[in-house]
Design a protein that fits this description.
The chain is mainly beta. The chain is built from 1 helix and 21 strands.
């Protein structure tokens, strides 16, 4: 019995050591981050044979027109030959480990590009246990517009030839307050009291855009579609465009006239709820003395008040915009 147990242990050790080191990327995406000025690449992949070993997932950036790697000039986000790159470290917990949406960030300013519009791409490499398991997996194309070193528009080229477009615009909640809370108007407290504003928690910043004064909203440009030959049309393609805060436009037409269709998008002001920002209605106090009560919605003791959520002023309660 002891010999049989020893043989089983030896066999398990041989199998364990013989597991090949492999990695396979399942998906990649890139998007701007609303909480900071970062571009976030998310990578989902499977990796085997690297349990407990430290590795890296690298992202490299290129000019799609020339195929040349972007150059780094401050030695911050760079490769050994001073090309732009960013990375995340990994240590797989199991012999076969799956990572879903591993986030790898880089500031838009670290691409070292002047203000303007660019057609770029990135690819991904995975290294673990001192061995490159994936090198230049694929070409992920995107368009990027920069202004004063910050991203203002990013369009991801999808495999089906559609585009996912992120556009930066003014925050729909603090539209006239430039990043300040629209309840306390940036004071952090209500009506010159010591009670912190229950909407911003006393920060004085807009709870929706976190004080930036603007947000990225997303829309989709459909893939080009062939025109119908009816009415004498000889073919060609029609491109559609969907975007902006107030609505979308899908263009196209036939020889018999033009038609316009609308695409519904989730309202960026209420995220589809149809309700506006939480508003505080303060209870009048005519006693001349301070009266406090606990509010379960605010999670603190403060002056008597009630909460009211009026209709969203962007979609007028519908939860979507056209």
């Amino acid at each position: 019995m002891k010999k049989a147990g020893l043989l089983l242990l030896m066999l398990a050790a041989v199998c364990f050591q013989g597991l090949a080191q492999t990695a396979k990327i399942k998906s990649c995406s890139i998007a701007p981050d609303n909480d900071d000025d970062m571009l976030t690449v998310k990578v989902s992949f499977d990796i085997s044979g690297c349990q407990g070993e430290e590795g890296r997932v690298n992202v490299y950036f290129y000019n799609n027109a020339t195929g040349k790697a972007l150059k780094c000039y401050d030695h911050t986000y760079n490769t050994t030959d001073n090309c732009v790159a960013t990375w995340a470290t990994i240590t797989p917990k199991y012999q076969s480990t799956s990572y879903t949406d591993l986030e790898i960030k880089i500031p838009a300013s670290e691409l070292h590009l002047a203000d303007g519009a660019y057609n770029l791409y990135y690819n991904v490499a995975i290294k673990c246990g001192g061995k490159w398991l994936v090198v230049n997996d694929d070409k992920y194309v995107f368009d990027l517009t920069l202004w004063q070193g910050r991203a203002t528009k990013l369009a991801v080229h999808n495999a089906d030839r559609s585009k996912l477009v992120y556009t930066y615009g003014k925050c729909v909640v603090c539209l006239t307050w430039n990043g300040r809370c629209n309840v306390c108007m940036g004071a952090g407290s209500i009506y010159n009291t010591n009670n912190p504003c229950p909407t911003c928690g006393g920060t004085g910043l807009c709870h929706f855009c976190h004080g930036r004064g603007g947000l990225f909203t997303s829309s989709t440009i459909p893939a080009p579609t062939k025109r119908s030959n009816s009415g004498g049309n000889s073919g060609g393609y029609s491109r559609g465009y969907t975007g902006g805060y107030s609505g979308g436009y899908v263009g196209g037409g036939t020889s018999s006239g033009s038609a316009t269709s609308k695409t519904r998008r989730t309202c960026p002001g209420c995220n589809g709820t149809g309700k506006g920002a939480d508003e505080i209605v303060w209870t009048p106090n005519y006693t001349g003395t301070e009266s406090l009560q606990y509010c379960s919605q605010c999670g603190r003791t403060t002056s008597p008040h009630s909460h009211r959520r009026a209709m969203c002023r962007v979609c007028y309660g519908k939860g979507y915009i056209n």
